[in-house]
């Protein structure tokens, strides 16, 4: 499994690679096999998005950041939220489905919450917004999460993901390898939270917000 820490693409991007079409053809040929071998689940949070005979919301990530290395051992499925951790400063769409959300991502200090759990919480909050009975609670939880971005802004001077990406771009390879970001997480802006809530409802229709009250203990 790829290391789930805030990061950027430091190797050659497809847009600047004259041989990108060949690498992409190899990637396309093996992508479905990778998804199938992982049971159509995100390698970080376990999100399942079945796509054997239809579309999937999962994306496939190059673990070593080299899009020419399309060995199956170098590829793993990630949900869009987990995938974006590895492309912190990227606003451009990429081959394989990464949509480029850098301008809608803030950095938060949340050492007690793993990236996987926070991303599942994002999706649950998005799903809760669709129901009037749960939307106020979702909004209140999100406001609490926003406080953790202010801690980052006070300590680092900015909580914008693109500012962190720019700082990482200036690091030497050794500095980047030892970057101290283990307690930092990504908080996605409301439009992304809402979008991922819709994904939740498509992949898990039985877990709609309207059914949650039935499962209270």
Explain the overall architecture:
The strands form two sheets. This protein has a two-stranded antiparallel ribbon. Strands 3-4 form a two-stranded antiparallel ribbon. The radius of gyration is 18 Å and the shape is flat. It has 217 residues and is mostly helical. It has one domain. Helices cover 40% and strands 8% of the residues.
Summed up:
Helices cover 40% and strands 8% of the residues. The chain has 217 residues and is mainly alpha-helical. The radius of gyration is 18 Å and the shape is flat.
Strand count: 4
- Tally of individual domains: 1
Poorly predicted residue ranges: none
Strand content: 5-15%
Q: Which sequence of SSEs, written as H and E, runs from N to C?
A: HEEHEHHHHEH
Mean pLDDT: 87
Oligomer: single chain
Q: Count helical runs.
A: 7
Briefly note the structural class of the backbone.
mainly alpha
Query: Strand sequence of the main sheet, in spatial order?
Result: 1-2
Task: Give the N-to-C terminal Cα separation.
Answer: 35 Å
Described by strand count, sense and barrel closure, the largest sheet is: 2 strands, antiparallel
Q: How would the global form be characterised?
A: flat
- What percent of residues adopt helix (DSSP H or I)? 40-55%
Rg over CA atoms, rounded to whole Å, is 18 Å
